[in-house]
Design goal:
single chain, 7-stranded antiparallel β-sheet, 20 strands
């Protein structure tokens, strides 16, 4: 649940036809007003607060896989007309994605106002305010739609082939509501939870990647851009969700960031992030991997002998780029990323949308846009405890696996401990792109492995905490299998697990298997 920068989570209850959800939350209403912070807001002030309470229902199965069941915006202001400051609402929750019109159940909510209002409003006043807001919203949305249609006609007149470009003005959220894409981005500051833009990229890339399930065949893609609360609570989403979150965090870090919509290899639709430097450089950020790529356009008009840059990024075409206040459609002769220049303020290359039009439907506080973004939550998991737990499970799995092969297992704790610096260095390299501490690690291993012995090590990275699943993946690698099933004289095995906790209880898990044995010729 999220309301005006406050987040809450109910206690988990077993899945049932009538789940036993009984929880109470205290939501502060006058939280972000300056000056009169200690004074209770009066009824009229509260009536003007149009932020709803966003509620998300999540189901977690036995293997810790999460599923988004429902997402609902609760209009709480009916309580302002209640004489005793109490009201009960039976909310019908609708499904998500392809089931967004199908009810999943009814949630009974009791609202109570503390302290009670000295003077309550009449039901008529509350209803009039809500009706006025709805009318205002509908009119703003209508005007924006009229503008967008006109803008699209102008774009097609530049070049008829623009019809095939991926210019995405609207996108459906998990509840099936069409929203302008700029609404999905908002500068997001992570407080003290993330220190750098690259650390933000690492955090986003640890969140799981999952496409919205498609009903029926055809190999198409079900479109579902999640609201930020739904994405964070589920801890996984599609490439658009990752790109929107990364762009919001980079804007929070003061960068000029945009989401690009285009295609990657084989023409698969894809979204990634672009940052424009003050010196004119364009950098791509892949939100699913955390990789960064410097963009240098190929100049087709150069003589054949001039060496052209070789692109390292996986992107093929780009149709549009946008953030919370700008939208640009690509109107260059080719939409190939290799040939495009990202001088966004050159109107002969990028057709802009009116910032005023975008602000009318996407600015924070406008009734049409999504409510303010929820703050990120500090990690709830104990990284050391998680590391120990997975390591113990892996030791048992390796011992059992070797037993099935008729092999004994001797663990060497000292060798396991010496693997820690390597795992820490791998995570630092993923975050910063700089590798450090390798010389000390190699020196320690040389000292720990006697003459005439051979050492083998295999590191691997996961973003889930399921030891059995990780072990099955490791065995599929011939290098790792060779270590786990090592035969020879004086064989000693080691395994080290290191968990790195990030906001929202996202977790990067590094595992290293190693063995040393006497080399027999």
């Amino acid at each position: 649940m999220h309301f005006r920068n406050q987040r809450f989570r109910s206690k988990p209850v077993p899945c049932a036809c009538e789940p036993d959800l009984h929880d109470g939350f205290l939501l502060e209403i006058h939280r972000d007003t300056l000056g009169d912070g200690s004074k209770m807001a009066d009824a009229t002030t509260m009536l003007s607060i149009c932020d709803p309470v966003h509620m998300v229902l999540i189901k977690t199965d036995t293997s810790s896989e999460t599923t988004l069941v429902a997402s609902h915006f609760l209009e709480w202001r009916s309580v302002l007309s209640s004489p005793d400051g109490k009201t009960s609402i039976a909310m019908e929750l609708l499904g998500v994605g392809t089931e967004s019109k199908v009810p999943v159940g009814v949630l009974n909510v009791k609202l109570e106002l503390y302290p009670r209002l000295n003077q309550t409003l009449t039901q008529e006043i509350v209803n009039t305010q809500l009706t006025l807001e709805r009318q205002k919203t509908a009119e703003k949305e209508r005007l924006f739609l009229v503008y967008a249609k006109q803008w699209w006609r102008e774009y097609l007149q530049i070049r008829p082939s623009h019809n095939t470009r991926l210019v995405k003005i609207f996108a459906q959220d998990e509840s099936g509501v069409n929203r302008p894409v700029c609404c999905y981005i908002r500068p997001l500051r992570a407080g003290r939870l993330l220190d750098t833009a690259r650390q933000a990229a690492r955090f986003v890339n640890i969140l799981g990647c999952e496409r919205a399930p498609l009903l029926g065949g055809g190999g198409g893609k079900q479109e579902q851009w999640c609201t930020l609360l739904a994405f964070l609570c589920r801890n996984k989403g599609d490439c658009e969700d990752h790109a929107n979150l990364l762009c919001s965090l980079l804007l929070g870090f003061g960068l000029d960031a945009y989401v690009c919509v285009g295609t990657k290899g084989k023409g698969v639709p894809h979204s990634w992030v672009l940052t424009c430097g003050t010196d004119g450089t364009a950098t791509f950020w892949e939100s699913l991997t955390g990789h960064r790529y410097l963009h240098r356009p190929i100049k087709p008009d150069d003589p054949p002998l001039v060496e052209q840059p070789r692109p390292t990024y996986p992107y093929r075409t780009v149709g549009c780029v946008f953030n919370h206040q700008s939208f640009f459609a690509n109107c260059q002769p080719s939409d190939s990323v290799d040939l495009c220049t990202f001088d966004l303020h050159n109107e002969s290359k990028w057709k802009p949308m009116s910032e005023e039009a975008i602000k009318s439907v996407c600015a924070p506080g406008s009734t049409t846009s999504l409510p303010p973004f929820p703050p990120l939550c500090a990690p709830m998991i104990d990284a050391a405890a998680v590391s120990n737990e997975i390591e113990l499970e892996l030791r048992i799995l390796v011992t059992e696996h070797r037993k099935d092969l008729g092999l004994g297992t001797v663990w060497e704790d000292h060798l396991s401990y010496l693997l820690s610096p390597a795992l820490a260095a791998y995570e630092i390299e993923r975050t910063t792109g700089i590798s450090a501490g390798n010389e000390e690690f190699q020196d320690a291993i040389r000292r720990a492995v006697p003459d005439g012995h051979t050492f083998k090590g295999f590191p691997i990275h996961f973003v889930h905490r399921n030891a059995r699943r990780a072990f099955a993946t490791c065995l599929r690698s011939p290098f790792c299998e060779e270590i786990i099933c090592c035969r020879g004289d004086h064989v000693r095995l080691a395994v080290r697990v290191r968990a790195f906790a990030y906001p929202e209880s996202a977790c990067a898990i590094w595992i290293m298997f190693a063995c040393k044995y006497r080399s027999v010729l």
